[in-house]
Amino acid sequence: MDLFARTAAKDRRGQPLAERMRPTSLAEFIGQEQLLGPGKLLRRALEAKELPSLILWGPPGTGKTTLGRLLAGEAGARFVPMSAVMAGVKDLREAVAEAATQRDQRNERTVLFIDEIHRFNKAQQDALLPHVEAGTVVLVGATTENPSFEVNAALLSRAKVVVLRALSEADLRAVIDRALADKERGLGNQPLDVSDDVRDLIAREARGDARRALVTLEAAAAVAAPDAGAGAGAVGRKLLTPAVIEEALQKRTLLYDRAGDEHYGVVSAFIKSMRGSDPDAAVYWMARMIEAGEDPLFVLRRMVIFAAEDVGVADPRALSVATAAVDAFRFIGLPEGLIPMTEAAIYLATAPKTNTAITTYAAAKADVDAHGALPVPNHIRNAPTPLAKQLGWGANYQYPHDFAGHYVREEYLPEPIRGHKYYKPSDSGHEAEIAERLAKLRAEDAAKKR
């Protein structure tokens, strides 16, 4: 055992701090009390020695891989890790065959842990399904993506989805403190001075990700210079200051997967902030996207759509502002292109709002769907040929410019839907003027009929 311990310790020396500090028991596991606390789901399962198939869904650095390994150990099962990025159907079959052998010969269960299970294609998931159904393996999948979008319904129905939360700053502080105190696996033997404020700073900048916290701590310890101004006996100690942490962080990698849930969450927040007339929030969420590496043209496309969908006729200039921002960005690029983008976001957020472009089209489409291709009334058809004129096309058409105010009451809809009103202007911005004008015209028409 001593030889094994020395060998294991030697093997850990070349590993990153985050890997060295990976918990080796549930007692060391920090966070996820909603799952592991007394009486909670996973705690009850482990106490019953019955580990169901699980899909662990949560942000990076919340302990999905560690938890899978620890759950297998607590349940007395073999732990077989596999990466969905690297593995194929052949690898799955080999793992399942070995699991069947261990079950039959040694009565030993196998936990098949699949990291990034959302990257498995349909064929790979289908190949796994019968073995999960038969109990040959207990599946524990880990994903940062919503499993209801990425995992086959059949496989999902045979596993319990467990949601892991981003770690709190208190949890991250505990992770940092443990790494600084641990002399075997952590940095306890290094001459480091790390104040409470700096520890809190690392926890805050980690944004719920334990791995990020430990990577930052390790990088800061590596770049910190010995404190030459320290007192006697303290020379050579490294002082980790906020400036050192900033250097270690360089540019923070924001939580934003352009193909994942966080992407859609931030985009939704951006649009809802503009819709809610909050320019501060709108620009904040736009900055989140840009600083995380989003294509600015994607953001600009969302603004063009928003200008038509949510501002609409309440301020017809909004669409021009949004498309002008697209042209300006294409012309000048980054970083100056962010200025017209910000101008457009502020304009759209503070503009009056109406969604009548959406509701009007939807109402018209409903009649198209209900009535099909109704014929164009003859009096508003063009009559380009003698035959068309003989058929009455264009007959009795009233040309609006021949009348006072360039308006005359005319029927433009097909007979079955004549009189239907699709556009119902709001009282917002310019649309209030439109509403007033339409009301006046309709009142004049009603008076003439009397």
List keywords for this structure.
single chain; 450 residues; alpha/beta; five-stranded parallel β-sheet; two-stranded parallel ribbon; elongated
Structure report:
With 450 residues, the protein is α/β, with parallel strands linked by helices. The protein is 52% helix and 7% strand. The chain has helices at residues 2-12, 17-20, 33-36, 41-47, 64-74, 89-106, 122-134, 147-150, 153-156, 169-181, 196-205, 210-223, 242-249, 261-275, 279-291, 296-311, 317-332, 338-350, 356-371, 386-390, 430-449; strands at residues 54-57, 78-83, 110-115, 138-143, 160-163, 192-194, 238-240. The protein has a 5-stranded parallel beta sheet, with helices on both faces. A two-stranded parallel ribbon has the order 6-7. The relative contact order is 0.07.
Mean pLDDT: 88
Sheet having the most strands: 5 strands, parallel
The sequence of SSEs as H and E is HHHHEHEHEHEHHEHEHHEHHHHHHHHH
Helical content stands at 40-55%
Low-confidence stretches: 1-10
How many H/I helices?
21
Strand order of the largest sheet: 2-3-4-1-5
Radius of gyration: 33 Å
Shape: elongated
Number of β-strand runs: 7
What structural class do the secondary elements suggest? alpha/beta
- Span of the ends, CA to CA: 105 Å
Beta-strand residue percentage? 5-15%
